[in-house]
Amino acid sequence: MTSWSTYRNVLFLSFAMFWIGIGSAIAQEKKEPSKADASKADASKADAPKTDAKADPSQADAKSKAKKDEKAAPAPGDSKDVSAAKGSSAEFNAKLEEWKTVLKEMRTVQQQHLTADAAQAKDLEKKWRELIAQGEAILPQLRAAGVKAYAASKDDRNIERFLIQILNDDIAHDQYEAAAALGKALLDAGCEDKKVLDHAGVAAFCTNDFDSAEKYLTDAQNAGAIGEAGGKFLQLIPDYKEFWKIEKDLRAKESEAKGEAELPRVKISTSKGDMVIELFENEAPGAVGNFISLIEKKFYDGLTFHRVLPGFMVQGGCPKGDGTGGPGYNIYCECYQPNHRKHFRGTLSMAHAVARDTGGSQFFLTFVPTAHLNGVHTAFGRVIEGMDVLGRIQRVDPEEKSGVEPDKIVKMEVLRKRSHEYAPNKVQ
Q: For residue 418, which of 290, 260, 311, 272 has the smallest C-alpha distance?
């Protein structure tokens, strides 16, 4: 079944395994006191004075009862908070049951597929896709309910574990906008898992929130919880703060442009959804002219994203589908001029061979800011709509013969352009 290996399917199956563990933990907690309760009981025993053999037992019992009554008395407003927490928890648990039902059905379908004949396999593949769609519809609701319930309870470790698992998945699948919001929500609610600092910092860096990234990643480093990507990004923050000042100013001016000064825009319709790209004609007119001319010739329609590497980029535009093809000519690089644009998340850039001026039709879209490509590849556009679609493109490493079916460019179309002719400036 070709769809078993798509990225969301891997997510669902990883959650199935995760919830097997969570389910066992919840069942155990129903039978036994929680660790937190046990710790409180132990602390209470430790704080109690040692029994005096001469003490009056009735007085000790009276003092003990008074102390318990004092602790049991709710503070003003506590009952409302408890009620709200219970309501949020119930909402989360209800949505969780929907999610778990989908996971169980997916596991059943996967097992049935192992022994199915051709006709049965076709029906099971259809069922699998339907379950994927159901799961994708539930997941955002489950995430929102989890964040709400965790913020209300602040100490529900099962919900915390669930949200951290979601955060891990967001980072692993380059969904940094969602990861940034979730990481902040966890930390604001008092999550003490230090790895969350690293993930929140990585997500903040990738979404251009460099001040937050610096804070989170520095704290993660001090806690000994910083990862490889976080460590690399922490070193890049001083440079990217400066790059972002320039980029923000350019984007602000571009948003105010009117008429012929407006930047061209194109839509890339993929097998995972649509993305809208704004093109940097002011800084890279050659790359933009070439790209629009190829789009208008329908050159890209039906081609694959043949190289998609997690934590890096999505590459497409090869007519051979293996990274060796092109339009039959090369264009000039525009990354060596002083005003070249830098690579941020969602940057559209020209792919080329090792030598200068060897680009043609192949392009890539970055998942993360890629400092090592600045001044080496021509950045000529950016994603302005559909960043979540970018993260859903099927991961494919051409060096690994995995048999994974790559996602496709269904079609490209020009949404707007300036009134002059667009044509490639070919290397002579």
A: 260
End-to-end CA distance of the chain: 48
Q: Match 């060796």 to its residue by tokens.
A: 324
Residue 184: CB atoms within 10 A of its CB come to: 17
11-22 as b/e: b if 16+ CB within 10 A: bbeebbebbeeb
State the Cα angle at 25 between 141 and 167, rounded to 5°.
Answer: 40
Single-letter code of the amino acid located at 373 = L
What are the boundaries of each domain within the chain? 260-416
Residues whose CB is less than 8 angstroms from the CB of residue 153 and which lie 6 or more positions away in sequence, other chains included: 85, 88, 89, 159
Closest CA to 409 of 281, 333, 279, 315: 315
Backbone φ and ψ of 414, nearest 5° = -85, 125
Rounded-to-integer distance, Cα 332 and Cα 166, Å: 43
Bridge-based pairing state of the strands 347-350 and 363-366: antiparallel
DSSP reduced 3-state for 279: strand
Yes or no: say if 372 and 403 are a contact pair by the CB < 8 Å rule: no
Amino acid letter, residue 307:
R
- In CATH terms, the fold of domain 260-416 is Cyclophilin (2.40.100)
Assigned token pair, 428: 């002579």
10-residue mean pLDDT profile of the chain (428 residues): values are 46 49 44 42 36 39 45 51 76 92 93 94 94 91 94 86 95 97 96 97 98 98 98 98 98 97 98 98 98 98 98 98 96 97 98 95 98 98 98 94 91 98 96
The first and second tokens of residue 60, run together, are 């000790």
Structure tokens at 145: 């309910």
* Residues 6 or more apart in contact with residue 152 via CB below 8 angstroms: 81, 84, 85, 87, 88, 89
DSSP state of 330: -
- Cβ-proximal residues to 160 (8 Å cutoff; 6+ apart), any chain: 150, 186, 191, 193
